[in-house]
Design brief:
26% helix; Trypsin Inhibitor V, Chain A; alpha+beta; 4 domains; single chain; 4-stranded mixed β-sheet
Length: 258
């Protein structure tokens, strides 16, 4: 035991212990310094916001910031964004990363997917616009042609081609609609409404495919439906004709005309 204490307290052992400790400290210090250099410790880059950029522009933008980009997903279609637009990124904007870090992005599709064209026949313009929106389509030019069904869809075209229910079109396509103007192209004789009550006249007009126009009341009229028609425009002259869907103006009187 005394020999062990003597060895531990000897000058030679103490010098060797100090030398070994110094070497260990140097090795640890050099290792940390090398790790700092290897990992670029303390030098970080703030990730920029790439959303709404095209992927080509994002690549050029990141190249100047020592960052890289890689497309992770390109299956998303967005009607309101151009093709190959960045919509998501990882890491997100504002995070701190090292040099040469890869930013993974999701971009919109280059080509729009196809959809089956909906059934728009005889639906109203407002309904047609709502249906087109749910299918990812856009309402384009509106035109009219003679038809008794006012504002009803008669036909639809995409790029000048007539499309019907079940035809495949690309999402985002502009659909031009042809609607009925509420006036037919069939000419009929002008019915004689003089002497009828307004209630009777409405029945006659409906049966003829015509509409009521302006209703002008005499001062003495209290109940319009029971009042009598004293004059009409256009008049029911011999050979006078009118298009189906057009309107007839009437003048009301409390007394039945002779």
């Amino acid at each position: 035991m005394s020999k062990l204490f003597s060895l531990l307290l000897s000058r030679r052992f103490i010098l060797n212990l100090l030398a070994a400790s110094t070497v260990a400290v140097l090795i640890v210090g050099l290792t940390y310094k090398w790790l700092d250099s290897y990992t670029n410790h303390g030098n970080t880059i703030t990730v920029p916001d790439l959303r709404n950029m095209t992927v080509d522009r994002a690549e050029d933008f990141l190249r100047n910031k020592s960052l890289r980009i890689k497309i992770a997903d390109s299956s998303v279609f967005d009607l309101n964004k151009p093709p190959r637009t960045v919509i998501e990124q990882d890491p997100s904007a504002g995070q701190k990363v090292k040099d040469n870090r890869t930013i993974y992005v999701s971009i919109t599709r280059s080509n729009a997917p196809g959809v089956k064209f909906p059934d728009l026949e005889d639906v109203s313009l407002r309904q047609a616009e709502a249906i087109l929106k749910t299918y990812g389509l856009v309402s384009g030019k509106i035109s009219y042609k003679p038809d008794l069904c006012k504002n009803c869809v008669l036909s639809a075209t995409v790029n000048g081609r007539i499309v019907k229910k079940g035809d495949e079109v690309q999402k985002g396509s502009s659909v031009d609609l042809t609607l009925g103007d509420g006036i037919g192209n069939i000419r009929i004789p002008v019915p004689d409404l003089t002497g009828l009550t307004l209630e009777e006249a409405l029945f006659v007009l409906k049966g003829s495919g015509l509409n009521i126009g302006a209703i002008v009341n005499d001062k003495g009229v209290k109940d319009s439906l029971r009042a009598f028609i004293s004059r009409q425009v256009p008049e029911a002259l011999p050979d006078a004709q009118i298009n189906q869907g057009e309107a007839v103006d009437v003048y009301l009187s409390p007394d039945k005309p002779e």
